[in-house]
Design brief:
The protein contains 10 helices and 22 strands. By secondary structure, it is α/β, with parallel strands linked by helices. The protein has 2 domains: 286 residues, TIM Barrel (Alpha-Beta Barrel), CATH 3.20.20; 81 residues, Sandwich (Immunoglobulin-like). The strands form 6 sheets. An 8-stranded parallel sheet has the order 13-8-7-6-5-2-1-14. Strands 15-16-17-22-19-20 form a 6-stranded antiparallel sheet. A two-stranded antiparallel sheet has the order 3-4. Strand 3 and strand 4 form a beta hairpin. The longest helix is centred in the first third of the chain and has 16 residues. It binds alpha-D-galactopyranose. Alpha-D-galactopyranose (GLA) binds next to loops.
Length: 405
């Protein structure tokens, strides 16, 4: 099925051996490539706009990322999700939907770069994308070269219509294709956690989805399989959160668990729920891909998405994924070790009423005897020094987000 051959048999043996050595060398260090040393941050068209995308939108979003201060706090990649492609030409080249993108992707990349941002694009390891447009199967090297020629910086690579393909092999093939194309491109693996990519993807992609698609709701949907066939594939953010437990050891600089893009500002999420979703994604060291229509957001949503103190927790250079350290039913304590030895803490109240949540220093890995300074990252104030433990009043479906140092 695959038309690409990495080591054409027409080459003489010494050349083949050399090519093999070079390939092996580059593959072994493929993802120690300086990209995504902290979780990637940006905006993606899918959650808010689905297939309703075009080049004017991309330019407007680039402008808004700069003008509304999103770029300044770290949002960098502007990713065009499914629906930019339409067909394959006779020579196999991917054909851009000209009605939506009449100037072509290269011109858009130039524009996005001129605004100091990076451009991402979407394809699929199978024959078709999830939206039914041409996927990259059999065209991996050709597509990678096209993306590099256009100036693409990030590829989200999906898993629809992949039949019996092996996920590790399919994604490694695109990794090698991107590497050969010679442009630094972040590889975002989107196979929904089906084959437990945290076990194999560390040297293949820079991030990998751990679940099916997020929905802008508190706890809607179910993630269920039957014999590897998807039954229901959309889940609310608290259900996604629950599926991140125990994945902490697999994340680190250059290789991140991806609990899917943000739904802050979308659907039925309340102010407290939006703040909880964002705080927890920051604590998880999740990629922060904005999923709302940033051209039209409320001041509250803007304030959540640009909370530089919460973002600093997400982007902390140690690159630890935070973990749940206590679960009292509806009341949870999550903690993330930071590079300076301090901890970020999220107190999460899933109940229907305001509640006090307390924790002791040993629960977040610090000695009981210390007097520690607590800072509230949503109130933006130091709340004082405390001996041994701390307690905060937390709204229903809300959080307190703190640093303890
Ligand atoms: C899948 C992915 C989504 C999105 C759509 C596009 O569902 O998981 O994030 O990219 O495909 O069709």
């Amino acid at each position: 099925m695959m038309c690409h051959s990495r080591h054409p048999s027409s080459l003489p043996i010494p050349v083949l051996a050399l090519a093999l050595l070079v390939t092996m060398g580059s593959t072994a260090s493929a993802l120690d490539d300086g990209l995504a040393r902290t979780p990637p941050m940006g905006w993606n068209s899918w959650n808010a706009l689905r297939l309703d995308i075009n080049e004017d939108l991309v330019r407007e979003v680039a402008d808004v990322m700069v003008e509304k201060g999103l770029k300044d706090v770290g949002y960098e990649y502007l990713v065009i999700d499914d629906g930019w492609q339409i067909a394959r030409a006779e020579d196999g080249a991917i054909v851009v939907n000209e009605e939506k993108f009449p100037s072509g992707i290269k011109a858009l990349a130039d524009y996005v770069h001129s605004r100091g941002l990076k451009l991402g694009i979407y394809s699929d390891a199978g024959a078709l994308t999830c939206g039914g447009f041409p996927g990259s199967l059999g065209h991996e090297y050709q597509d990678a070269r096209t993306y590099a020629a256009w100036g693409i910086d990030y590829l989200k690579y999906d898993w629809c219509h992949s039949g019996n393909q092996s996920a590790p092999d399919s994604y490694a093939l695109m990794r090698d294709a991107l590497s050969e194309a010679g442009r630094p491109i972040v590889l975002s693996i989107c196979e929904w956690g089906t084959s437990r990519p945290w076990l194999w993807a560390r040297d293949v992609g820079h991030l990998w989805r751990t679940t099916f698609d997020i929905r802008p709701c508190w706890d809607c949907g179910e993630q269920t399989h039957s014999k590897n066939v998807l039954i229901e594939n959309f889940i609310g953010f608290t259900k996604i959160l629950d599926l991140q437990v125990d994945l902490e050891p697999y994340a680190g600089p250059g290789h991140w668990n991806d609990p899917d893009m943000l739904e802050v500002g979308n659907g039925e999420l309340t102010y407290e729920e939006n703040r909880a979703h964002f705080s927890l994604w920051c604590l998880l060291a999740a990629p922060l891909m904005l999923g709302n229509d940033i051209r039209d957001m409320t001041p509250e949503v803007h304030a959540i998405l640009t909370n530089a103190e919460a973002i600093a927790v997400n982007q902390d250079p140690l690159g630890r994924q935070g973990r749940k350290v206590r679960d009292d039913g509806d009341l949870e304590v999550w903690s993330k070790e930071l590079a300076d030895g301090s901890r970020a803490v999220v107190l999460f109240n899933r109940s229907e009423e305001e509640k006090d949540i307390s924790f002791a220093w040993p629960e977040i890995g610090l000695p009981q005897s210390l007097s520690l300074k607590v800072r509230d990252l949503w109130r933006h104030e130091d709340v004082g020094a405390f001996e041994g433990s701390y307690s905060a009043r937390v709204p229903s479906h809300g959080v307190a987000m703190l640093t303890v140092r």
